[in-house]
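Case study 2.
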Amino acid sequence: EKAGAEHMVREMGIQRDVLFLGNQDCMEELLPLADVFLLPSSTESFGLVALEAMSAEVPVVASDTGGIPEVVDHGRTGFLHAHEDLPGFVKSTLKLLTDEPLRRAMGRRGRRVARERFSEDEMVGRYIAVYDSLRTPQEDDERAGGEGLRRHVADRRARLGDRHERSTERRHIE
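Prediction:
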């Protein structure tokens, strides 16, 4: 696919406008330089790369497959199309490239969504909620750090304390 894209770029005479960078280690430095992020995947589990682009205030034009629609809000943080809808991808990309206020607004909204809905605290909270919803009442009581365990430890201490007090009283009586 890359070879075909490179050939097309040469045929169109736009080599000065298109860069094929290959694998990169510092995407967080490169992403903010982009005007639009294209993700025409036929399969995508979550869309982390779209989320990274949104974090860099880059609007996303992506396939409406897998978990991408959970990340990209069509018309607000980018555009979604069927992965085989090349005319749709072209139309949305050209719209963003020719409408700077729209591109900037979508980029800002994308960054806000990435920070609010997908922050570390938010995601940890979601995972905890899922785990909590799957636990049984018995697991609740046995869970380390849970109220059930605290109750168990307090009861045990109380019983041990009572025993200690009774044995001390007996010694004083004898």
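The longest helix spans residues 147-173.
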